[in-house]
Amino acid sequence: MHAQAKPPAYLFAEIDVTDQDAYTKDYLPKAQGNIEAFSGKRLAGGFNKVISLRGAAPPNRVVLIQFPDMDALKAFEVKEQKLQADIGVDKYASYRVIGIEGIEQK
């Protein structure tokens, strides 16, 4: 019998950035380092890279990141929340972040 691998997990974030210069300079490089530290892979998104198909318009930054599993995503999020608090990123951005467990692909 083979052990079942954990499914990947996805982080989806809607980010309303009010000061793009500060966000890009003070926060983004450190956040990208955290993504890599937890084996995350940026799949889609960025500034003004998304369109509304139905419902409310999206904010100016949306990202989709894949992690090896939900444990890695949760560990990333703990470190990310600390980073955001240390930098004070809420001065120039607000977030809605959700984690999604992947499904087995057949």
How would the blueprint of this fold be written?
Elements: E1 9-17, H1 20-37, E2 41-47, E3 61-67, H2 70-87, E4 93-101
Antiparallel strand pairs: 1-3, 1-4, 2-3
Descriptive notes:
The protein is of the alpha+beta class and 106 residues long. It has helices spanning 20-37, 70-87; strands at 9-17, 41-47, 61-67, 93-101.
**In angstroms, what is the radius of gyration?**
15 Å
Give the domain tally: 1
Roughly how much helix do the residues carry, as a percent range? 25-40%
CATH class: Alpha Beta
Parts with pLDDT < 50 across at least 5 consecutive residues:
none
Categorize the overall geometry. Answer: globular
State the major sheet.
4 strands, antiparallel
**What is the mean predicted local confidence, pLDDT?**
93
Total of helices: 2
Cα(first) to Cα(last) distance is 19 Å
- Second-tier CATH architecture: 2-Layer Sandwich
Strand portion: 25-35%
Strand order in the sheet with the most strands: 2-3-1-4
**Structural category:** alpha+beta
- Give the topology string: H per helix, E per strand: EHEEHE
Strand tally: 4
